[in-house]
Write a structure and sequence with these properties.
- This protein has 396 residues and is an alpha+beta fold.
- Among the domains are: 2-127, no CATH class; 196-338, Beta-Lactamase (2-Layer Sandwich), CATH 3.30.450.
- It contains eight helices and six strands; from the N terminus they run ααααααβββαβββα.
- β5 and β6 (295-304) form a beta hairpin.
- α3 runs parallel beside α5 and α5 (98-192) packs parallel to α8 (310-395).
- Mean pLDDT is 77; it is low at 1-16 and 269-274.
Length: 396
């Protein structure tokens, strides 16, 4: 019975396929054999037929429980009638009657019907359970799909959020960098506004740049007659060269190339460097030429104990463009002023000469008038002399 129960369990859960048909038939044959060789319908083995009917119903369906019920009634009736007629040799056939056979068949039929109803109810319940399991599985699958979709959406949202955060951070940094540059250029424009001399302007510009960039030393050299002359400085040592030729040293090379030159990681030892900024031993030195219409106007030199960042170098290049225009304008204005002064001097000198010439002319005119009067007087005297001579001759 234990083996049958194990086989039934494995068959019920689908682990075994062939016992589904063999087990009910095998059990039916065993029970029938035990009843046949035992006491017939009085044998206790007859109680195995409900088990056979239950096996058939559980394994093969309710229809087979009805079929095995008929098989059981048929075999019990056959054995009972054989006992009653005496043509079956069994241990005993006492008290075997038609009534007992009929009652046994009716009870077996009742049990079969009961098992049929129970199996039908079980099948209905199992069908509902299967439907619910299917619906639950579909719901779980749908939930998994929803979960997967939500996870994908969350991942996408997180990715978009990270990307948006990075873009916002980049935009913020760009705005800050642009605002910083705009503010610096605005301050530079304020410094360069007004009617300033070239030396005063140079000093104001380099001082502003050093303060705004937080560098320690700086100088401005202006181009004149093929050389670069110191025009303004900030924390600049007086024992350093105040002029360079074009192409000489860092300053002259930047002017020649018209490109910014950056020297980094300079040694902290006291050495003479052609940037003229060696007194504080700067770690970084930058030379920025400023031009106007492809002509070098001058060079800015700044030294820092740290490094010049990318935005600071970009700011210096933008500032150099504005500085080049302003310094060229001031130089042109000073040249015009010099020309005007020279022209005014020449005009004043010409006017003085004109006045001297006018005085000389007036003096000459006066002398001419006097000479004319003298000539007239001389003619009059000559005429009177001639008349006197005529009178004398007449008297003679």
């Amino acid at each position: 019975m234990m083996v049958s129960a194990i086989i039934l369990g494995l068959t019920w859960f689908g682990e075994l396929k062939w016992p589904r048909f063999v087990l009910p038939l095998f059990t039916f044959v065993i029970v029938s054999f035990l009843v046949f060789v035992g006491e017939g319908i009085r044998d206790e083995g007859i109680l195995g037929y409900p088990l056979v009917i239950a096996f058939a119903g559980l394994l093969l369906g309710k229809r087979w429980s009805f079929i095995y019920t008929l098989f059981s009634i048929a075999i019990i009736s056959f054995i009972g009638l054989g006992q009653l007629g005496g043509w079956l040799s069994v241990t005993t056939h006492a008290d075997v009657t038609i009534t007992r056979i009929a009652v046994t068949d009716i009870m077996l039929l009742f049990l079969g019907a009961l098992i049929y109803v129970i199996i039908q109810s079980l099948e209905h319940t199992l069908s509902q359970v299967q439907v619910r399991e299917t619906a639950l599985a579909e719901s779980n699958l749908a939930l998994k799909d929803i979960q997967t979709e939500l996870e994908n959406r969350i991942t996408e949202r997180v990715r978009h959020f990270d990307q948006a955060r990075r873009e916002a951070e980049a935009a913020r940094q760009a705005i800050e960098r642009q605002a910083w540059q705009t503010n610096g250029l605005a301050k530079l424009s304020e410094v360069m506004a007004g009617d300033l001399a070239i030396e005063e302007l140079s000093k104001s510009v380099i001082q502003l740049l050093c303060h705004y960039l937080e560098v320690q030393v700086g100088a401005i050299f202006l181009a004149r007659d093929g050389n670069l002359y110191l025009s303004g400085s900030y924390a600049y040592t007086q024992n350093q060269p105040d002029h360079f030729e074009i192409g000489e040293g860092l300053v002259g090379q930047a002017a020649l190339d018209q490109q910014m030159i950056v020297l980094t990681n300079l040694p902290a030892e006291r050495i003479q460097i052609t940037t003229t900024l060696g007194e504080i031993f700067p770690k970084t030195v930058v030379a920025v030429p400023f031009t106007f219409e492809a002509k070098t106007v001058g060079v800015m030199v700044l030294g820092s104990l740290g490094a010049f960042s990318g935005r600071e170098q970009q700011f210096l290049q933008q500032a150099a463009a504005n500085i080049g225009v302003v310094f060229h304008t001031i130089q042109a204005r000073e040249q015009i002023d010099q020309l005007l002064q020279h022209s005014q001097f020449q005009a004043d000198e010409l006017q003085t000469r004109e006045e001297e010439l006018r005085s000389a002319n007036e003096e000459l005119e006066a002398q001419a008038e006097n000479l004319k009067l003298a000539n007239l007087e001389l003619l009059r005297v000559q005429k009177e002399s001639q008349e006197d001579e005529g009178d004398i001759k007449s008297d003679e």
